[in-house]
Amino acid sequence: MQSIFILLLTLGCIGIVSTYQCYQCDGDIKGDCNDPFNATGSITDNDKREAPPGAACMKTKRESTGGSTAERRINSNGLYYCIGGQNGCKKYNRDGITATVCCCTSDLCNGVSAVQQKPLIVSLIMSTLAMFSYRWC
């Protein structure tokens, strides 16, 4: 059981340091970039970019009385523009426009409507809890 924990811990660390890709598109130019996002429509491999170290994938959705549009890109400024945190969202209003800014740090995570956590980290936490409960029960 301990060797499984060490293996999962090692794999989790590899996933954390590995690079990931972000979608980079503008809903004003490509309609499939808007919500609901359609990765199989006009979105191609050219709309995927490798995120540099310290960067985050970002999705900004702007809504007004005229409709809504989404932009997906890489936030190279790190967490500076991630007003909702590294893996979160925050909504704000300015000049009659409601904007929701979401940042995330996993592969193509800005292509979903909600920010997703890495499944490997969830598995690691569950395995750790299982190991501790097995040991004390």
Can you put this structure into words, describing what you see?
The model has no long low-confidence stretch (mean pLDDT 81). This protein has two helices and seven strands; from the N terminus they run H-E-E-E-E-E-E-E-H. It has a five-stranded antiparallel β-sheet with strand order 2-5-4-7-6, with no helix packed on it. Strands 1-3 form a two-stranded antiparallel ribbon. The chain has 137 residues and is an alpha+beta fold. The chain has a single domain (1-110), classed as CD59 (Ribbon), CATH 2.10.60.10. Helix 1 packs antiparallel against helix 2. It has helices spanning 2-17, 119-136; strands at 21-23, 25-26, 48-50, 56-64, 67-75, 88-94, 97-104. Residues 60-69 have a biased composition (Basic and acidic residues).
In short:
Helix content is 25%, strand content 30%. It is an alpha+beta fold and 137 residues long. Strand 4 (56-64) and strand 5 (67-75) form a beta hairpin.
Please outline the helices and strands.
Elements: H1 2-17, E1 21-23, E2 25-26, E3 48-50, E4 56-64, E5 67-75, E6 88-94, E7 97-104, H2 119-136
Antiparallel strand pairs: 1-3, 2-5, 4-5, 4-7, 6-7
Helix pairs in contact: 1-2
